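> call design_seq(struct)
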């Protein structure tokens, strides 16, 4: 089942307190979960040397609990103000005879380094000393684990984790594009009770959520839609092949030529059309004025975001927009007359995706390292893709995949969710050098699903 995303821990902690779990017990559960994960990972080392880097707040206190349950670890406390909970946990540990390191350790001597310095409540720039330490740790070969959130994530220098153990709930900041390089693999820790998520609106999609076109033995090509593509020869062919490999019954490219004999070439829409994708490399956007598109499910991409004619499609629930950040900047200019830079968008992807979807009815796919799919109040994120997709043509294939699902009668939100998830999973499944990946390998990889 898809995982629920929250902005912070407050909702979860409130529910725990209502059920009788106080802060002390929550911290104990958090520390046990962290310790158990470290124990599991330490098995790959012979007599693993484990170092905890501790702050003076709740994150550091979680680390102190984990140390107590591990029994064998080292701890270096940073010179920050200690809160009451940290002091209590520190004293409990000292009572067991545990000795804290007096001076900064040599990080290269450790097999596992655990970041318990700052949690999600950090609202200041990391000091120069901690930045220096994190730079040293980044150069070490140690397995790096962050408790709840890598300290300083979103800043120029932060802790770069191989794993992040997310305490209680999955937090939005861990799924921002700028965080992807630093959070590593995200693992979830239960603090004592299952969270009520009946009214949740934000979700992380996982492999098990994927739904594909299902073909029965007595079906024919017409059962799975005839999709049309308005794009340039190259981009249109990639989109067309993506649509075919993803299950479309018939694919027509409105262009003079293509580089595949599998795609039909048309001068215009000639027959009953199930869905249409428009925009990739397309110079003539007059099709956006065509009345025949009035009741046809659409994917609008690339050059479409340069045309004000796009605005007439934004309040249709059967339309999917697929901008990358620069195109999204153009879209925001058209919609709100605001000049929002790509950098600003990338720093606040969730904010701007929600801002757009709160006003318009269409589905938005904001492409990036962790694509965001939104419609109205619903928001979905896919974080299983990787840098292999950072190649020209990947977005063209995605548009073809979405239109294939639209043609097969998926609604627009389901088409976008499943195509984006499948797109990412193909890249994840690619085991060779990521630099060798390209759009044709992406299309070929769809068979692995």
């Amino acid at each position: 089942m898809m995982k629920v995303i929250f902005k912070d821990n407050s909702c979860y902690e409130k529910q725990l307190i209502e059920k009788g779990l106080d802060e002390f017990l929550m911290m104990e559960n958090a520390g046990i979960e962290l310790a158990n994960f470290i124990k599991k990972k330490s098995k790959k080392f012979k007599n693993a040397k484990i170092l905890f880097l501790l702050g003076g707040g709740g994150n550091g206190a979680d680390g102190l609990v984990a140390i107590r349950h591990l029994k064998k670890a080292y701890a270096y406390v940073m010179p920050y103000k200690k809160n009451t909970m940290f002091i209590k946990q520190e004293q409990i540990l000292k009572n067991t005879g545990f000795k804290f390191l007096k001076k900064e350790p040599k990080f290269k001597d450790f097999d596992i380094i655990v970041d318990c310095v700052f949690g999600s409540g950090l609202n200041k720039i990391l000091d120069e000393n901690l930045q220096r330490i994190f730079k040293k740790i980044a150069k070490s070969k140690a397995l790096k684990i962050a408790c709840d959130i890598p300290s300083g994530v979103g800043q120029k220098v932060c802790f770069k984790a191989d794993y992040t153990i997310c305490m209680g709930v999955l937090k939005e900041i861990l799924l921002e594009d700028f965080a992807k390089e630093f959070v590593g693999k995200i693992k979830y820790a239960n603090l004592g009770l299952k969270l009520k998520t009946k009214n949740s609106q934000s979700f992380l999609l996982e492999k098990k959520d994927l739904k594909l076109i299902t073909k029965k033995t007595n079906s024919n090509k017409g059962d799975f839609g005839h999709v049309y593509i308005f794009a340039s020869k190259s981009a249109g062919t990639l989109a067309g092949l993506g649509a075919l490999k993803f299950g479309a019954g018939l694919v027509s490219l409105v262009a003079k030529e293509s580089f595949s004999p599998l795609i039909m070439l048309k001068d215009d829409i000639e027959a009953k059309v199930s869905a249409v994708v428009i925009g990739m490399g397309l110079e003539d956007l007059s099709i956006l004025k065509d009345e025949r598109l009035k009741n046809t499910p659409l994917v609008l991409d690339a050059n479409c975001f340069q045309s004000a004619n796009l605005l007439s499609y934004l309040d249709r629930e059967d339309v999917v927009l697929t901008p990358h950040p620069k195109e999204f900047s153009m879209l925001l200019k058209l919609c709100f007359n605001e000049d929002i830079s790509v950098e600003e968008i990338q720093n606040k992807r969730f904010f701007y995706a929600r801002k757009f979807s709160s006003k318009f009815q269409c589905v938005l796919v904001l492409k990036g390292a962790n694509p965001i799919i939104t419609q109205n109040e619903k928001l979905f994120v896919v974080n299983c893709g990787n840098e292999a997709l950072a190649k020209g043509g990947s977005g063209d294939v995605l548009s073809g995949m979405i239109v294939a699902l639209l043609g097969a009668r998926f609604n627009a939100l389901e088409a976008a969710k499943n195509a984006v998830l499948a797109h990412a999973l193909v890249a994840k499944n690619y085991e060779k050098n990521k630099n060798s990946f390209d759009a044709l390998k992406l299309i070929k990889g769809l068979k692995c699903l």
